[in-house]
Amino acid sequence: MPSARRRLLVALAFGFAGAALVYVALRLVEAVWFPEANPAIVIWSDRSRFVWRALIAAYAGGAAIFGGHALATRSIDAASRWLGRAALAAALALALQGALVP
Predict the structure, then answer these.
(1) What backbone torsions phi and psi does residue 39 show, to the nearest 5 degrees?
(2) DSSP characters for 35-84?
(3) pTM for the whole thing?
(4) pLDDT in tens, the chain (102 residues)
């Protein structure tokens, strides 16, 4: 695989891991400081918290792509090691968030 394509794939993977981590952070902040109303009481809402969390997480994941690309350009081996750590952190964070704050 060409080196430029490998760097882009690593950067994209950093973006996905970053988006997952930001989504979990946003969900935890909302759960602690802004608890949701009881769904049985609220019939219709003009905004969806999930959609906004997902959009902000996607935006932050897009920003993480630049960091991943910079790291992959400097050293693809270091980027691969950090990508493994970031993916593991994102998976653990999503699992804990799903278990503790569904």
Answers:
(1) -65, -25
(2) PPPPTTT----SS-HHHHHHHHHHHHHHHHHHHHHHHHHH-HHHHHHHHH
(3) 0.85
(4) 668 999 999 999 999 999 999 999 999 998 889 887 666 555 556 677 888 899 999 999 999 999 999 999 999 999 999 999 999 999 999 999 999 987
- Name residue 64's amino acid: A
Please state, in angstroms and as integers, the Cα–Cα distance from residue 49 to each residue in 1, 21, 54, 55, following that order: 40, 17, 9, 10
Phi (first) and psi of residue 32, to 5 degrees: -80, -50
Domain residue extents for the chain: 3-34+43-100
**Residue type at 30 in one-letter notation:** E
Q: Hunting for tokens 């760097």 — which residue is that?
A: 7
